Task: inverse folding
C-alpha cells in the first residue's frame, strides 16, 4: 500500500495570525505552519480570555479582506521578517572578533606592513580586505564560512591567491608591491590608505610576473625568428657550399681532363717521334740497301774503305771507326747513326774472303 504525503496548503489568515501571535504557532519553512487552531493553542499556552478574543477579532478582520489584500499583507510581513533577520545577522557579524574596531587596519597598520620584506597569502588577504593580519587569521575563519559574510569573503580571496600561487603567478612569499599589482590586475579593490603607504614608502607597484611573462613571450618570439633566420642562413650556406662543391668538382674534372689530354699529347708526340725516327732509319736503310749483286758490291766497297781508311776491325764488338765514319758523313750533310753504320759494316764483313776475316 502506498501512502501519499499531504502537505497543508498555505493559508494567509493563519500565517498572519501566527505572525502576530507568535506564541500560538511555530515557523516552518518559508511560512508558518499552524499545528493547531490559534484558540486551542492559546488556551494550551495559558492565554487569557481577552487574548483569545483579540485573536478571534483579528481573524475575523482578515476574513473580510480580499485575496489581493491578504497577499499584500503576507508580502509585507515576509519583508519585515527578512529585514529583522538581516539586522540580526549584521548584529551577529559585528560581534565577531575580526569585525571589532581593533581588527581593522589603519594607516599605522599599513605603514608597518608595507615595510615588511614580504607578505604571505594569509597576511596579504587580510591587508587587502582592510584587516590587521595580527587580528585576523585564516585558521580562525575557516569554520565560519557559512555564518559570516567577512569569513566567506576572506576565504574566497585566499582561494584566488592560492590558485594564483599554484600557477606561479604568485609565490608563497611576495613583496608588497607585487601583491597589490596582482590585485589591481584582477580588479580587486585595494584600500586607499594601503596604496598611499606603499607610495610613501617608495615601493613600485608592478606586476613583475606579468612583465616577466610579457618579456619572456617577446624573447621566445625573437628566439623563434632568430631560429628561422639561422635555419635560412644554414640552408643558404648549404646551397652555396653545394654550388662551390659542384664548381670544384667541375674544375677538378676539367683539370683531370686537361692533364689526361697533356698525357695523351705527350704519348702521341713520343709515338710520333719514334715513328719519325723509325722512318728516318728505314729511309736511310732503303737508300743504302740495293738488291742482289749491287748490294754485295756496295757492301764490299764500304767494308774495304772502312778497313783501309778507318782501321775498322770486324772482329771487335765496336771500335772508333763507326764514330769517325758518322762524323765524316755528318760533315757532308749526311746523318746516319752508329748502329746503322755498324750494321752495314758487319754485313759487308761477311762478304770478305775467309783469309781476310782471319786477319
Result:
Amino acid at each position: 500500500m502506498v501512502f501519499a504525503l499531504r502537505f497543508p496548503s498555505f493559508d494567509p489568515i493563519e500565517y498572519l495570525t501566527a505572525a502576530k501571535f507568535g506564541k500560538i504557532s511555530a515557523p516552518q519553512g518559508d511560512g508558518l505552519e499552524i499545528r493547531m487552531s490559534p484558540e486551542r493553542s492559546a488556551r494550551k499556552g495559558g492565554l487569557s480570555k481577552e487574548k483569545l478574543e483579540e485573536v478571534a477579532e483579528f481573524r475575523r478582520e482578515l476574513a473580510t479582506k480580499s485575496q489581493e489584500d491578504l497577499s499584500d499583507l503576507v508580502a509585507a510581513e515576509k519583508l519585515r521578517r527578512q529585514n529583522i533577520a538581516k539586522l540580526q545577522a549584521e548584529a551577529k557579524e559585528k560581534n565577531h572578533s575580526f569585525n571589532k574596531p581593533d581588527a581593522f587596519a589603519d594607516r599605522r597598520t599599513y605603514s608597518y606592513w608595507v615595510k615588511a620584506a614580504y607578505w604571505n597569502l594569509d597576511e596579504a588577504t587580510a591587508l587587502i580586505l582592510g584587516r590587521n593580519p595580527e587580528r585576523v587569521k585564516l585558521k580562525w575563519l575557516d569554520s565560519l564560512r557559512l555564518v559570516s559574510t567577512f569569513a566567506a569573503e576572506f576565504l574566497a580571496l585566499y582561494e584566488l591567491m592560492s590558485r594564483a600561487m599554484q600557477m606561479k603567478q604568485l609565490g608563497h612569499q611576495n613583496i608588497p608591491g607585487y601583491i597589490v599589482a596582482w590585485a589591481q590586475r584582477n580588479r580587486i579593490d585595494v584600500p586607499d590608505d594601503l596604496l598611499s603607504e606603499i607610495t610613501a614608502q617608495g615601493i613600485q607597484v608592478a606586476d613583475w610576473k606579468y612583465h616577466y611573462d610579457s618579456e619572456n613571450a617577446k624573447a621566445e618570439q625573437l628566439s623563434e625568428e632568430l631560429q628561422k633566420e639561422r635555419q635560412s642562413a644554414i640552408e643558404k650556406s648549404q646551397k652555396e657550399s653545394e654550388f662551390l662543391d659542384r664548381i670544384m668538382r667541375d674544375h677538378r674534372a676539367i683539370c683531370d681532363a686537361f692533364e689526361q689530354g697533356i698525357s695523351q699529347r705527350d704519348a702521341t708526340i713520343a709515338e710520333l717521334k719514334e715513328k719519325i725516327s723509325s722512318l728516318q732509319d728505314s729511309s736511310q736503310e732503303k737508300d743504302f740497301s740495293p738488291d742482289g749483286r749491287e748490294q754485295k758490291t756496295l757492301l764490299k766497297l764500304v767494308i774495304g774503305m772502312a778497313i783501309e781508311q778507318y782501321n775498322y776491325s770486324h772482329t771487335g764488338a765496336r771500335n772508333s771507326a763507326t764514330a769517325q765514319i758518322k762524323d765524316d758523313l755528318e760533315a757532308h750533310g749526311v746523318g746516319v747513326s752508329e748502329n746503322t753504320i755498324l750494321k752495314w759494316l758487319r754485313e759487308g764483313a761477311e762478304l770478305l774472303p775467309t783469309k781476310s776475316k782471319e786477319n
Summary: The beta strands are 26-28, 31-33, 119-120, 173-174. The CA atoms of residues 207 and 294 lie 128 Å apart.
